Amino acid sequence: MSDLDGQTAHTALREAASQVLENHGLVLEEIVVTGPRSMPEVRLIVDLPEDQLGSADLDAVAIASRELSDLIDADDALLGPDPVVLEITTPGVDRELTAVRHFRRSRGRLLSLTADGTLYRARLLAVTAGDVLILRQEPGRDDRGRPLRMPQGTSERLELPVAEVSTAQVQVEFDPPADLAQLIADADPTASKES
């Protein structure tokens, strides 16, 4: 169940949550309501604005969570008078990238994505104004940790329109390139310099 009473039922909650989150440099990605009507579980998924790189500050998330909890307790118009379980969380690495804003938030990250039936492993460097992904293909390592090579004739640079991507997910990585900020700047000189 994605909403207690449909998409419009939580307009007030969405507006109130968006304001509180904005005060902490966060944006509301999604509201998910599950559980029984007598004690629903309300999960707000929050993230940084799409023009920022990095991860949401967990202290800011915790402070926003307390403020939202107090606001919901004080205003029955947001979720009703009955008790609710409130959870504020950030998107996990298992989130499927489906919207252009998801890709913009993933600049600099290593992705596994599929387009036209082809699987790519590539680092997202930029998203153009025309919603085209600028990627650098990275072949990865074999099971012994040795670097793999790109097939001969394969370009390292890849450009894919978001509309042609059928699946995309961020890959967990422990050793991003040391020159990541420069790679992003070279791909899109207008990209944010924050990391």
Gyration radius (Cα, Å) is: 20 Å
Characterize the largest beta sheet: strand count, sense, and whether it forms a barrel: 5 strands, antiparallel
Q: Give the helix tally.
A: 5
Order the strands across the largest sheet as they lie in space: 7-6-5-4-8
**Class of secondary structure makeup:** alpha+beta
* Ends apart, CA distance between termini: 36 Å
- What's the total count of β strands? 8
Quick one: overall form?
A: elongated
Strand content: 25-35%
- pLDDT averaged residue by residue: 85
Provide the succession of SSEs: HEEHHEHEEEEEH
Could you estimate the helical fraction of the residues in percent? Answer: 10-25%
Low-pLDDT windows of residues: 1-8, 191-195
Structural descriptors:
disordered N terminus, single chain, three-stranded mixed β-sheet, disordered C terminus, 195 residues, alpha+beta, 5 helices
